[in-house]
Design brief:
The complex is a heterodimer. By secondary structure, chain A is an alpha/beta fold. Chain A contains 17 helices and 24 strands. In chain A, 31% of the residues lie in helices and 21% in strands. In chain A, helix 3 runs parallel beside helix 6, helix 3 packs parallel to helix 13 and helix 5 packs across helix 13. Chain B has a two-stranded antiparallel ribbon with strand order 1-2. Chains A and B meet through strand 5, strand 13, helix 8 and helix 12 of A and strand 1 and strand 2 of B. Chain A: This is Succinate dehydrogenase [ubiquinone] flavoprotein subunit, mitochondrial. Chain A: Pathway: Carbohydrate metabolism; tricarboxylic acid cycle; fumarate from succinate (eukaryal route): step 1/1. Chain A: GO terms for molecular function: electron transfer activity; flavin adenine dinucleotide binding; succinate dehydrogenase (quinone) activity.
Chain lengths: 663, 99
């Protein structure tokens, strides 16, 4: 505390960008508070309106982007290109964002391998989303896709090429020609096997051309909202513990997904749903959080996914009794059943006590009965993968696997332009000043299920869309609307409370409780009783946050504090996910329930429509879930919003009427 | 002259004595560590720099195509090794990265 007071005393002397040496006596042995601004030299002012204990610095920008992954970078330099004074606030260095791990491809109807049309891509995406996707947003994304990929290529992204020099496209991700009737489409462009890595580095390199101000390793705490308008962001500088308020007319949230709410996920430790939580604390809804995409065979502990090809080549899943349990659940297809059947079967085995390991919480994938030569030729590299991530020799021991979270289809609700919306009195209302893009947003193009290679496309198209919308509606250098001087004091109070928390449960213990509860109750196997039990347990875990104990009382690079803040964010996402899943009494896309196995739409689309009564809005489930949370009690309120069924231009691209989804 | 010869012989004796001393010491260390010093040269510590002195590691499991052109599909600059999407998901080294 003494060092912090010394720092604030230093600040009150307005010793900022020029680092003048302060006499040692005045400093009392503490580090000089050093703050410098990169990019445009707008003066940042020190404020002591909200706290005299923490150094608070105010900044003014035209636009602030939270998050520097694929979507955040695209939005940031799109805005800088349009002349806006932009700040990019990120808790990680841009090239460390989780986009770098996306090794799959990016879909676009370029038509290089065969004749192609973006309207067929539109149809495939609408069908893949199980008719929960907003068709205007999907229209926008698939129509912009070729232009987006060509733009990336012009930025220097080294796509793989055909002999003629055009971008090579391969078949992937449920894509078809002629509205599903023309066979497999080849639409997936890639950069060797590191598309996401290359995309992120290309975008970062491109963004350095423009003078975006990067605030790297600044953890965004909350939105600054006033009268229902978003006026900026308040963030913690992790390096020196100072608080920064970024005032801006436009705020773009691109913070990524929240895989870390589950015990087993492929996401980085930093995927903690910060954007979703910031929006929730501001009293705004999150959309469709119960739709979480799982993969059946993820390595226990590490979270890397083992390809289905292992089972295709003869690998089998076994339980603690050594039994090939898939024979009971899918007598014909056995281990080659579809992913959701396999995931559910694995979960049922674990629930019934036939799991393996000390906690009996996973199963084994056995490959050692196959000849090692065959493994090496058909699946090169698998022994390396198994050894590095699971520590097993794949020719002698089985690999421990369990269903793993890969992607979050839900997020902050936006319209097709990227503006955040709320659903009030039956109409969508745009929240002024707030935009969202990327995995954090739910536009919603993925609906109930994401198709492969569509996610990277989503990032660049909607990142650009946010920048274009802001450029359309605002001008650079606009005067900022007034903000209460005390804006953000709750965030600082929360920070202070966490920093000196002295309960009896560690952050890591509470986090593990939450992850285990979510993995056991809100994973692949969902039924009413299991979900209800999970909701109650999650409510208890949420309350246990009051007893949190942190150990590091410092202010410089306090990772204990930052992890506790991230845990608060994860908790908000988790309660919304499990409550949304419990209320949704149907099976659609990635949300599959054992007690309600069918999709419940306004008509029964498996039968002819004539003579059918249209079900009222309250009785069918083809609608988006909008969830609100009271942060103090953890109580979740759910409302519903209709799906947008019309495309942007019915003459150009007719909307796809709902039908039964079968491949 | 004689003084010089004395000096030389003295230094030679000193050298030989130090040599003898040296041989005594090295002899004792040789006997202590056995055949180690005889057969293998001193190993560099396992530092990042020391890795460059180690034998060239065998190539990556996924070999590069000649000229980076996939002979079957004629794709230039594409993924190495077998086709990643052959099982319906995007697979690399046994890991699924997209599906």
């Amino acid at each position: 505390m003494a060092t912090v007071r010394a720092a604030s005393r230093l600040l009150s002397k307005r010793v900022l960008a020029n680092m003048k040496a302060v006499p040692a006596a005045a400093v009392q042995g503490s580090r000089n508070f050093h703050f410098s601004i990169y990019g445009k030299k707008k003066s940042a002012k020190v404020a002591d309106d909200i706290s005299t204990q923490y150094p608070v610095v105010d900044h003014e920008f035209d636009a602030v982007v939270v998050g520097a992954g694929g979507a955040g970078l695209r939005a940031a330099f799109g805005l800088s290109e349009a002349g806006f004074n932009t700040a990019c606030v990120t808790k990680l260095f841009p090239t460390r964002s989780h986009t770098v791990a996306a090794q799959g491809g990016i879909n676009a109807a370029l038509g290089n391998m065969e004749e192609d049309d973006w309207r067929w891509h539109f149809y495939d995406t609408v069908k893949g989303s199980d008719w929960l996707g907003d068709q205007d947003a999907i229209h926008y994304m698939t129509e912009q896709a070729p232009a987006a990929v060509v733009e990336l290529e012009n930025f220097g992204m080294p796509f793989s090429r055909t002999e003629e020099g055009k971008i090579y496209q391969r078949a992937f991700g449920g894509q078809s020609l002629k509205y599903g009737k023309g066979g497999q489409a080849h639409r997936c462009c890639c950069v060797a096997d590191r598309t996401g890595h290359s995309l992120l580095h290309t975008l970062y390199g491109r963004s350095l051309r423009y003078d975006t101000s990067y605030f790297v390793e600044y953890f965004a705490l909350d939105l600054l909202m006033e009268n229902g308008e978003c006026k900026g962001v308040i963030a913690l500088c992790m390096e020196d513990g100072s608080i920064h308020r970024f005032r801006a007319q436009n705020t773009v949230i691109a913070t990524g997904g929240y895989g870390r709410t589950y015990f087993s996920c492929t996401s980085a430790h930093t995927s903690t749903g910060d954007g979703n939580a910031m929006v929730t604390r501001a009293g705004l809804p999150c959309q469709d959080l119960e739709f979480v995409q799982f993969h059946p065979t993820g390595i226990y502990g590490a979270g890397c996914l083992i390809t289905e090809g292992c089972r295709g080549e003869g690998g089998i899943l076994i339980n603690s009794e050594g039994e090939r349990f898939m024979e009971r659940y899918a007598p014909n297809a056995k281990d080659l059943a579809s992913r959701d059947v396999v995931s559910r079967s694995m979960t049922i085995e674990i629930r019934e006590g036939r799991g393996v390991g000390p906690d009996k919480d996973h199963v084994y994938l056995q490959l050692h009965h196959l000849p090692p030569q065959q493994l090496a030729t058909r699946l090169p590299g698998i022994s390396e993968t198994a050894m590095i991530f699971a520590g097993v020799d794949v020719t002698k021991e089985p690999i421990p696997v369990l269903p793993t979270v890969h992607y979050n289809m839900g997020g902050i609700p936006t319209n097709y332009k990227g503006q955040v919306i709320d659903h009030i009195n039956g109409k969508d209302k745009v929240i002024p000043g707030l935009y969202a893009c990327g995995e954090a947003a739910c536009a919603s193009v993925h609906g109930a299920n994401r198709l492969g290679a569509n996610s990277l496309l989503d990032l660049v198209v909607f990142g650009r869309a946010c920048a274009l919308t802001i450029a359309e509606e605002h001008k650079p250098g606009e005067k900022l609307s007034p903000l209460k001087p005390s804006a953000g004091e709750e965030s600082v109070a929360n920070l202070d409370k966490l920093r000196f928390a002295n309960g009896n449960l560690r952050t890591s213990e509470i986090r593990l409780n939450m992850q285990k509860t979510m993995q056991n109750h809100a994973a692949v196997f969902r039924t009413g009783s299991v979900l209800k039990e999970g909701c109650d347990k999650m409510a208890d875990v949420y309350q246990s946050m009051e007893k949190i104990k942190t150990f590091d009382r410092g202010i410089v690079w306090n990772t204990d504090l930052v992890e506790s803040l991230e845990l608060q964010n994860l908790m908000l996402n988790a309660v919304q996910t499990i409550n949304g899943a419990e209320q949704r009494k149907e099976s659609r896309g990635a949300h599959a329930r054992e007690d309600f196995k069918d999709r419940i739409d306004e008509y029964d689309y498996s039968k002819p429509l004539e003579g059918q009564q249209k079900k009222p809005f309250e009785q069918h489930w083809r609608k988006h879930t909008m969830s609100y949370v009271d942060p103090k009690t953890g109580k979740v309120t759910l409302r519903y919003r209709p799906v947008i069924d019309s495309s942007l231009n019915e003459q150009d691209c007719a909307h796809v009427p709902p039908a039964i989804r079968s491949y | 002259m004689s003084f010089l010869r004395l000096c030389v012989s003295a230094s030679r004796r000193v050298v030989s004595r130090t040599q003898a001393v040296g041989s005594v010491f090295s002899g004792s260390s040789r006997s202590a560590s056995g055949a180690l010093k005889d057969q293998e040269p001193l190993k560099k510590a396992k530092t990042p720099q020391g890795r460059f002195d180690a034998a060239e590691k065998s190539g990556d499991v996924l070999e590069k195509f000649p000229d980076d052109v996939n002979p079957k599909t004629k794709e230039k600059g594409g993924p190495r090794g077998p086709e990643p999407t052959r099982y319906g998901d995007w697979e690399r080294k046994g890991r699924c990265v997209d599906f």
